[in-house]
Every structure is written in structure tokens, then in C-alpha cells.
Amino acid sequence: MKLFKSKSSAGLLSAPYMAWALIFILVPLGMVFYYGLTNDSGSFTLENITTIAKPGYLKALIRSLRLAVISTFVCFILAYPLGMILSSMKLSKNTYIVTLFILPMWMNFLLRTLTWMTLLEGKGVINTVLEFFHLPTINVINTGAAIVLGMVYNFLPFMILPIYNSLNKIDENVINAARDLGANTLQTFLKITLPLSLPGILSGITMVFIPALTTFAISTMLGGSKILLIGNIIEQEFTQLYDWHLGSGLSIVLMVFIILNMIIETIFDKGGNA
Amino acid sequence: MKNKPLSIILCLLLVCFCICGCAENDKATNKKEKLYVYNWGEYIDDEVIDKFEEETGIDVVYDMFETNEIMYAKLAQDDSAYDVICPSDYMIQKLIENDLIQELNFDHIPNSKNIGAQYYESSRSFDPENKYSVPYCWGTVGILYNKTMVDETVDSWDILWNPKYSGQILMQDSVRDAYMVALLKNGYSQNTKNPDEIAVATKDLIAQKPLVQAYVVDQVRDKMIGGEAALGVIYSGEAIYTARENDDLVYVVPKEGTNVWIDSWVITKGSKNKENAEKWIDFMCRGDIALQNFEYITYSTPNTIAQENIEDEDIKNSKVAFPDLSEFPSESYQYLGQDGDRLYNDAWMEVKSADY
Amino acid sequence: MKNVLKKLYLALLLIFMYAPIITLIVLSFNSSKSRAKWGGFTLNWYINLLSDEAVAGALINTLTIAILATIFSTIIGTVTSIAMIGLNTKLRSFIMGITNIPMINADIVTGISLMLLFRFLHIGTGFTTILLAHITFNIPFVMLSIMPRIKNMNFYVYEAALDLGASPVYAFTKTILPDLVPGIVSGALMAFTMSLDDFIITYFTKGSGFETLSTLIYNEVKRGIQPEIYALSAIIFVVVLTLLMIVYRVPSSKTKEKANEK
């Protein structure tokens, strides 16, 4: 590599970003930890973090985890068959269809959520249609189901893309070889396709699970403020209750779950490679 | 060393871009007289803002908040973010105690004399020497119900716990208003600091949760007009407007009593445009402006000139807009101190995160 | 039979994705304010929208932020990626590690952490803070789409050019840069999308009197949805659709060529 004749010029070139990352990534994170581990008078405390064990907070955390797991699972169940269908199609056709599935992502995130508000409301579009056909109306808005629906709708493309990409990379010859060796469809799928697409599945899970776990806009809009998620609590600590210490402490708790998710992913990823 | 120039050039370029970006931004913000106003949602006639801008040449940046608590968090974060704000009674007390607002110079607000003396008198409960605030609107909190959906007489907060209206009830998504309802229902004071009484109210609010359609603030109005709910907790100022839009809607103050509130203009401690803020308050106190504003937002005005000039006799003599406070028990919120706040906030968190 | 099932599944998912959007578009022409009634066709909401300064302002803010953030993050991301070539592995993985933080971390934590920083530095929140925040979370997207190309790059051509007497700058722009362009473009596109779509980080770093489309919609939703918002979403959808059709025309014809080559 002779692009850089000296190390120092490469260092100089990377310096602006290093400074940027220091100021805007590392220092702010440090501040979250500082606030999270101190109280009003500035002395060290773990109280902000242990608050998560209080009933109200713990309930919200467990509820967030539950809804995030459900949403991730539903996204996976919907996206995997789609990925398989898309990767089995002709190239010229599937880029077009993949684009169709990503396109809603380009619309504003809040507008996408808003659509479901309009559809699901007590006197919303779906109920109006049901009433017109004299069918019983549904009461989904302001329940956990509405929030899951909102999450799935918003985050589904994040699951589709990585799964599709990893499925698309699988060499058809590998599958054909397995077939030649006498494996049936199910065996081929379990032994070849699924393991090879694991990296895509894992990154899809992360990309859905983390925003689903930490959202507050979806639960506010589709939950009628009746269903409090951990994201809502953190948001409120900052925007209503003015308790930065507690808000930061709860953010640290949230980061623990993100790191946990990363660790599980790496373990699975390694298992898949072996 | 051949490549050093290239890296230096690229590096400089980056710095240039950053500086240009910042400089341009500063230029854009400093060109005109400004005033940052922070007010409740749906709480002013937009034309009034336009008029103010026209008459004074001041550029108004107008932001809205949903609850006193949101306003406070924003201001505590940065007390120079806004110049003039319009919080309620107890919150003004909290702002004074935390040194976030400043004393007004009433010489610069001559129109403040248009505000009725009795409103200054009641302001003393939170602003003892009338030094910080000028009343903007006042009213009560009550129940708005839809005649076609509720067939019994509504005269008590109890109806909000009636399982018959499951999924048809809209509660306020603000801690003090929600607790006021539950505390008064049990015959307690809305300013109680007694943990046992708060616990009873908390239990009641959790029990009510399955019946509640949603916890909302500004949306109560539109949802009631649209017939999406049967009962809603709402401020009296919305009563005239909602009745105008939907004949079936009736506002009542329950017999257990209610909260009487005053929202007043105050100037922030860190205000960078104090003179403009004073001009704003003075403008809002002008009789014709207060009247125009009243006719649009329909929140009771404390402005005597505006009150006299209301053309519609029904509204002028309306018991809803200008209630006789001796007809039902009433009290105003007080700031309960940091401990009191924490007590309520923890309890409210418990309500909001409860399963149902 | 299998093919029919496949098509059915595709169709069902597409309906799930698009039915809500189409409903919004239909509602944007409904003259009745109520969602439950069809009051006849109207263009009023569109006309109202055009005269709505708040929406126009928010739209301009959103685009300005997105464009500037894309430019800055693309430049910084590209320069840093190039610099990575000359760095040793340790430093490289250290930088990539830091770069991954905003990607992996929850938006709400990133937003809060930046808010704390700006408060600490006493930077008045507003345009500048949102821009800085957007550049910060955009750089990783740019770098992550350029880095794979750098890893697979062949530097012999560059060295050959130097040996043949080309100046380093000339050799760089003629041999290395062209290889990076697809990565840079897709990184920039990604950054632009993320910036347009962001709500949470903007929400925590915005100051008084400055709204982007996201924060404006969030406020509107809390105050009760007005039909103008439907008109707005319809317009945005059509614009996005047209833009994507233009953008995807180019690569799709290329992939067709590739497919034919096979």
C-alpha cells in the first residue's frame, strides 16, 4: 500500500473524524454515564440504575421487551419467506420488487405510523368499512396489538433487506450439490439455506429489535399514552419530569440490553460459521 | 512525503466547510428583531400574532407546549430559549421559586390595568406581590359529555368510573389534572401532600384505566367533536367552541368541585428580548386584541374591556365562560415543592405503566 | 400451484405495505374533516397546505438539514475511509469500533447524549445542533458503505500509474476514486434517507422555534390530525415514488445487462 508514503499523512487525514468522533460520540456517551451514575448534588450513586427495579419501571421494561420480541418475531416470519421468494425470482424482476418493499421507508417515519392511527381509530377507516358491511367493529387502537402492528409496519423493511441480501448471495450450486447428494427440500433448507442466511437474519433481528425496544413515538401515537414503554419513560424524564439523572440511568439500562443483544448475536454468528 | 499536500488540502477543506456552515447559520438568525413565545396549543388567534408582527415589526417565533411540565422541563434546560411564556398558577410559583422568570416592569405594560382587579387578587396565591405575571386566561376544569351517548345526569366525577362508558372516556394526560379528578372524587384536597390520600387516588386511577380510551391533552376537543368518546375531562374554555361545533356536547362542573386556574404571561430570566416581550404582553392586554382573541379561542378572558364588549349576550352572561365561583367548591393548584412533585410523579408513573 | 402461492404472498405483503398509504391519499381528497365520512372530492387541503408557512418552513428545514448533513458526512466519511488505507490494523479497528456506536446504539440514547453535550457546552439548540447531530449519525452509514470497497481494492493500478509518472493526485483521481464512487454514492443516499427520516435524534436536539417535518408532524398528531397532513403525506409519497423511479432506472438497466451477460 503505497497510497500513503508516511503513516503521519494518513493519521492527519483521519484526524478530523477522530476529533469529531471524540466530541460527538465518545464525550456525549461519557456524559450519559456521568449523569446516570450521579445524583443532583453530583455524588456517585447507583440509585438511578436500580430504579428500574421499581414496579412501575420494571413493568414498562418487561412490556417493552415483550412487544419488541413479538414484533421482531412477526417481522422475521413475514420477511423470511419473502426473501426466499424474491431471491428465487429473476434478477431483473426482483430488484424492482425489492424497491417496492423499501419504498415506504422513504416516507417519513411518523407519517407511516400516522397511517395506522387513521386506520385503526374507533371511528377510523377500518371500522367504518366494517360497519358498512354490518360486521362487528374492531377495537385495536390503544392496545399492545396496535403498537406491534405499528412496529412491524415500520421496521419490516429492515428485516427484509438483510435477509434478502444474504439469501441472494447463496451460491445456487451449493444447493444443487446438496440436492444431488440426496437431501430433500426440508433438509436442504435446514442444513444449507438457513445456516448460510444466518448473518442476514441476525442483522435483521438487531435492526428491528433495537428500535422496537426503544421507541416512544409509536407507543404514544398508537397506544393513546395508555401503554408506557421504557422509551416513553426515558423521554418523559427529559421532556416532562426534568430528571436527567434518572433518564440517563435508565438509558444505561437500555444500553445493557443493546450490548446483550450484540453478544448473543456474536455467539450465534460464530456458531453459524463453525 | 509526496502525499502530504493532498491530505492537508482535504483536511483544510473539511475545516472550511465546517466554518462556512456555522457562519452562514449565524447570519441567518441575527437579521431581525425577534420574540420567542411559548404558549399552550390552540391558545391564540393566529391573526393576533400577525397583527402584532405588523404593528411592531417584530418577528414572532411561536412554539406550543402541551402541559406545564413539558414547558418547565424545556425552560429549566435553557431559560433563554423563550422570552415570554404562559404557564398556569402553580407552575408560575415553581418558576419563581427556581428563579427562572423575572419581575415585570409594569410601566412598560400600561394595558395591564385592563385586567380586572379580582384576577390580580387571585394571582396573589402564586405571585404574592403581583410582580411576575399578567393574567391571560382563566377557567375551570370539568366534564364535557355527549348528550346522545350519556343518558344520565352528569354532575359528579364518579361518572368517569362508570363501566357503562368503557372505552368512551378521555382523561387528561397531565399529572395534576388527572389527580385533581381522583382526589376530589374521594373528597380530598387537590393540593394534598398526604401519601395515603395520593395512594387512594392512584388506586382509583389504575382502576379507571381499563375504561379510559386514551390519555390526551389537546386532542380531547377534536375527539369529542368527532363523537369518538362520550365523556372527556376538559378545560372550561373549550366548552363554547365545542358546543358551537357539535350541539350534543355539554360542559359541567361536578358538584365535588373543581380546579380554578389562571394562565398568565411571564418573562423568562434569560430573555434576550425583554423589551419585545413587554410589548407582547402589553399588546395581549389591549381590549380589542383580548376580545378578538377571546372570540377565537373562547377561553374566559380576565380583560374587563373585552368582557364588556362581547357582542353575543349568551356568551357574555354564560355561566360556563364566566362562572360564579361561589356555586361550587373550588381551589387552585399550588406548587407542592420538589418532594410533592416527586410524590405525584412517581404515583402517576405507576398509573401510566399499570397493566389493564 | 407453488408459483400462485408465491405470487399471492407477495401480493398480500404489498397490500399490507401500501393499503395504508393509499388510504391516506384517498382521505386527502375527502372534503369532510371526519375520517368516517366521504364528503365529496376536494383539493382544499392541498390549497391550504400550500399557503401554510409552518409546513413550508419545516419542509425547507428538513431538506436543508438533510442536504448539508449528507454533504458533510459524505466528505468526512470518504476522507476518513481513504485515510484508513494508511492506518495500521489496530487503529483501524478502533476507529471502526467507535463508528459502530451510533449505528448500534438506540436513537433515543444518541439523541439524549447529544442533548447533554450541547447543554454542557451551552450551544443554543436549533439549526446548528440538529445539523451536527445528523452529521454524526450519518458518517457511519457513509463509511460502512465505502469500507468494503476499500478492503477489496487493488492498489497495483495506482502504483503502476505512479511508476508511469502520474502525480499522486492525478493517479488517485484516475485509479482509486472511480472505484470508490459507487460506495460513496450509496453512502450519501443512505445518509440522506436517514436524515430525512429521523425523528428521535432531532426531537432531542432541536431548540425553540425550529421544526423539521418529523417534529412538526409529531406536534400535529398530539394536537389532533388535520386533513392537511394527509395532503402532505400524499405529496411526499408521490415525490419519493418519482425520485426512486428515476434513481432505480439506472441500476436496474445495469443489472439487466449483467443478467444478460450471464
TrEMBL record, chain A:
Record has Transmembrane helix as a keyword: yes
CDD domains: TM_PBP2
Superkingdom as given in the UniProt entry: Bacteria
Entry annotated with the keyword Lipoprotein: no
Compartment annotation: Cell membrane
Domain ABC transmembrane type-1: 61-265
Membrane topology: Multi-pass membrane protein
SUPFAM superfamilies according to UniProt: MetI-like
Chain ranges passing through the membrane: 12-37, 65-86, 98-120, 140-161, 244-264
Keyword annotations: Cell membrane, Membrane, Transmembrane, Transmembrane helix, Transport
Recorded GO CC terms: plasma membrane
A GO biological-process term: transmembrane transport
Entry similarity comment: Belongs to the binding-protein-dependent transport system permease family. CysTW subfamily.
Name recorded for this polypeptide: Spermidine/putrescine transport system permease protein
Species classification: Bacteria, Bacillati, Bacillota, Clostridia, Lachnospirales
Automatic annotation (TrEMBL), chain B:
Keywords on record: Periplasm, Signal, Transport
Domain of life from the UniProt record: Bacteria
Entry binding sites for spermidine: 42, 90, 334
SUPFAM superfamilies (UniProt xref): Periplasmic binding protein-like II
Pfam families the record matches: SBP_bac_8 (PF13416)
Places the protein is found: Periplasm
Entries under InterPro entries matching the protein: SBP (IPR006059), Sperm_putr-bd (IPR001188)
GO process terms (BP): polyamine transport
Signal peptide: 1-23
GO cellular component term of the entry, any: periplasmic space
One Gene Ontology term of the molecular function aspect: polyamine binding
Protein name stated in the entry: Spermidine/putrescine transport system substrate-binding protein
Organism: Butyrivibrio hungatei DSM 14810
Upper lineage: Bacteria, Bacillati, Bacillota, Clostridia, Lachnospirales
TrEMBL record, chain C:
GO cellular component, one term: plasma membrane
Annotated ABC transmembrane type-1 domain residues: 59-247
Topology in membrane: Multi-pass membrane protein
Coiled-coil intervals, chain numbering: none
Transmembrane residue ranges: 9-29, 54-87, 94-117, 123-146, 180-204, 229-248
SUPFAM superfamilies assigned to the protein according to its UniProt record, in alphabetical order: MetI-like
Domain of life of the source: Bacteria
GO process terms (BP): transmembrane transport
PROSITE patterns: ABC_TM1
Compartment(s) where it occurs, according to its Swiss-Prot or TrEMBL record: Cell membrane
Entry annotated with the keyword Transmembrane: yes
Gene3D superfamilies (UniProt xref): MetI-like
A Pfam match: BPD_transp_1
InterPro entries assigned to the protein according to its UniProt record, in alphabetical order: Bact_Polyamine_Transport (IPR051789), MetI-like (IPR000515), MetI-like_sf (IPR035906)
Keywords on record: Cell membrane, Membrane, Transmembrane, Transmembrane helix, Transport
UniProt family annotation: Belongs to the binding-protein-dependent transport system permease family. CysTW subfamily.
Name of this protein: Spermidine/putrescine transport system permease protein
